[in-house]
Structure formats: structure tokens, C-alpha cells
């Protein structure tokens, strides 16, 4: 009888920094991801947020340019975390997920890697937006620069869950071509491009139930100290729960099938 | 029809088997892909799973890798559940298609595999070398030819230094040169004592590279043995004779006859021992004009593996 050499399983189900490093390098190689998540939000900000009246009009402790900057940072974080989560779609379409089944990587560790990646790229996106804003006339109180940025980033977790859910729902090579417009509509409905009450009372009421609304309200709160915070928090919590449940449901079906 | 030329495995225990499939059945809805397969493979064997498309080869491979669960029966790889054996790196595979990301380089793909298996960085260059793709390490996977991608899959499969390597139709879509290079690499590797199972529908590949050939047809093993013994079993001969008014049931009962075909007054009897069939026809029936012809290997393979429904014989 052949004696087999002792073999061990990797720790943490295969979750490790080496994989995250390689995956980050691959994401940065994808020009579309870079344009969508890092460049576009900053460009939107420069186009819509930096005219003279926005710079002079005051809001909270800063100017309207600063207000729009935070909204665009949220938009960028949202695009970044969604596309991070939606990577699973491309990987399933390419048969890569199946290939990973032939390694010790546990499905849960794989999801964890994707979430970490989504949050890293979301962080970079927020940082880029704030950096562009700081040299383009955005004015915020010092603590708001930090708090608004952090809140935009942390709350974008809801879209990492959304991206994962969609990634498992739509096995497609170019899932972001579908999700990009969806996110734009949701951002509009959630008051990211223009305050929700600009469009009347009914619209403003509906807006409160859409998934982008909460994130935007929370992220801008350190600046404006306005609005009912608990509604926004409830919004984020409920949507995160819904998207996570959706992702888990599809994920379980996926693992059962293969 | 079940032909068995398997070397005596049954007498041995199952503890030291590389692969042990016990009455394995796999159904997908109304379709039975694998229909009661028993297969034992010992460490060090190089085994070809040979059969036409849709015979159940890939389903069998998927079950060996834990990618599919058997509906009935048990699958053990080195005495473990397939997925556990995979996670420990005891078994790895080169799959038919897919399984690669276009925007990784060749080297990064192997590096990621190494990271997942907890192997040192030095193992990456080694695997690239052994698969013969060290020179294209910096190339993006999307820019690699089919043969290069296949050798990349091979490099990934080598990384955990598996006891058992499974290849599913490894040379599909390769040109003759690519096929040759690929098998050279596999052959070098198997010389080190690794157990290899490969699924193929190329008879020549099974013949040239396997110690043991397992013929699969419609989810069942129809023959199992050394390449030469299976060929001998498969390549029987045909006795043609003029025999008016013959009944096929009567002809089928002749010792050594496997199949019978009647065309008008002419009968075609196929079997391994054509001498005794001829002797019987000449001594016990009014048959005349006897002719004995041998089938070629390709024809024999078709007989063994063809679907009855799609076959004209």
C-alpha cells in the first residue's frame, strides 16, 4: 500500500491576502471597471457640482459643491461595490467558479474575498472623489470630510450585497451593462442627483423606499444635519438584509446544483 | 453485452484503491447519465474512459471530483469523499473547457492556484516548467491558444502534486502538434507513478497512452481491461454464409455468436470464436459459401460504444 504524504487544509477556508492581491491587480487591469468606478463619479461631480452658484451657495457648514461631492462619492462607492459583487457573474459564466471548486477554497471564503474586494475598490472610489473635490472648490467642515467619506463607504456595503445578488441572478459576461443603468435610475430615485423634494411630495415619499435614498441621507448627514436619520438607517438596514438574503438564496442554489 | 477482461481486482481490499465507484447511478430528471457503474482503480494505473459523446464520461468525472453527487451508490477517492480528496489536493483535474479568466496572465492564474493550495511561490515556476508554458507566463490567458490554455489547466492541476490526475477530453480542439505536445507532458508526468484517468473519444489516445481501457456506453461499462485485451474482445470477426430460411433466434443460440444479421438468404454472424461458428454452420446446418472477415478497430469500437437507437446494425 502506498503511503500518502500528510496533507493539510488551508486556514480560514482558503481566505487569504494573496488571493485578494491578485484579484485587485486583475480588477485594475479591467479598463471598464476603472472608468466606471473611479473616473466617472469624479467627472460627474466636475460637470454638475462646480459651477459658480453651487460654489457660493451655502449649505450646512459647507457649500453646495461639497453637498454634490458627497452625493457623487456615494454614487462612486455604489458603482464600485456593485461591480465588485457582480464579479461573481462573470466568473460563473467563464466556469471559473467551477474551477475554484477544485481547490480548497470554501464558497463562504470566496464570498468574503469578493466582499473585501468590493469594499477596497469602494474605498478607493470615495478617496478619489474626495481628492478631486478638495481641489475643485468643494467646501466641507473638517470633520465632515472624514465622516461623510466614511459613511458613504460603509453604507455602500448594501450595494456589495446587491452586486452579489445580481451576480448570482444574472450569469452574464457583461452584467454591469445591465446594472449600470439600473444604478443610475436608483440614484435618481434616491435623490443622489437632485434632492427628492424637487419633484413634489409624492415622488419624495416614494423615494424614501428606494435603496439609494438611505445611503445618500446618511452620508450627507454630517454636513446638513437635516432629515430624519432613523428613516435613512432603517432604509439601509432593510435593503442590506433583503439583498443579502437574495444573494444567500441564489448562492445556496448555486452550491446545491454543482 | 458485457465484456470483461478486467485484471483481478475483486480479490483485493478497497482500502488502498485510488478510485472506488460502487453501483453508482446518476440521474438528471428523466435522463440516466450513469447507470450502475462499478469501477475500481489502483494507484499508479493509467486508465482511459473511452466512449462516444453522451456516454456518461463527463458525469463520471464530475462525480469523482465532487462536482456532482451520485443519485445512488458511493464514490470514494483514496478512501475519502471526492470533495475532501479535492480539497486536500489528492486529486486534481484538467477540465474540458472554461475554468479560466481571460484577464489574468498565465503566471497569475497558476500563482492564485498555489496561494489557494498553500503552496510556496517556488511551486509556480515548477508547474509552469512541467507543463511547458514557462515562456508564456506573462501572457494574458485571453491571448493564449487553445493548446496553451489546456497546458495552463494542466499546470494548475499539477500544483497540489496530486496522487490522481483526471483529464476530461483533454485534447478536444487541439491541432495534431498541440495534441502531441500535451500528451508528451502528461506521459513524462505519469512516468513518476501518478495515477491518471482520462476521458476520451479518441480510440488512438486510449490505445497509445492507457494501461487499461474502460469502455463506456449509455452510462454503463461495457468492457474493461488492458488496451490489447479490450481490442481483442472488441475486434471479433464476422462469418457470412448463405443459409435460406434461417431464424435469427436459432442463429443467436449458436455458441460464440454475439450478433446476428439476416439479409435475404445471407446471414452475418459476428463473434469472437469464428472458427467454432463456422464449424457449427458447416456440420449442423445446410449453410454454404462461408466467408470470414475481420472488423477493423474503428468498427469494433463503434459496435461496443454506439447507441442502439442510432445504430443501423
TrEMBL record, chain A:
Location(s) in or outside the cell: Cell membrane; Membrane
Domain (ABC transmembrane type-2): residue spans on this chain: 32-254
The entry's keywords: Antibiotic resistance, Cell membrane, Membrane, Transmembrane, Transmembrane helix, Transport
GO MF annotation terms: ABC-type transporter activity
PROSITE patterns attached to this UniProt entry: ABC_TM2
GO BP, one annotated term: response to antibiotic
Residue ranges of the TM segments: 34-52, 64-88, 108-132, 144-170, 182-207, 227-249
Protein name (Swiss-Prot/TrEMBL): Transport permease protein
Phylogenetic classification of the source organism: Bacteria, Bacillati, Actinomycetota, Actinomycetes, Micromonosporales
Automatic annotation (TrEMBL), chain B:
Keyword 4Fe-4S: no
Molecular function terms, GO-annotated: ATP binding; ATP hydrolysis activity
SMART domains: AAA (SM00382)
Domain ABC transporter intervals: 19-243
Alphabetic keyword roster: Antibiotic resistance, ATP-binding, Nucleotide-binding, Transport
Main location, first listed in the record: membrane
Bilayer topology term: Peripheral membrane protein
One Gene Ontology CC term in the entry: plasma membrane
Protein name: ABC transporter ATP-binding protein
Species assigned in the record: Paractinoplanes toevensis
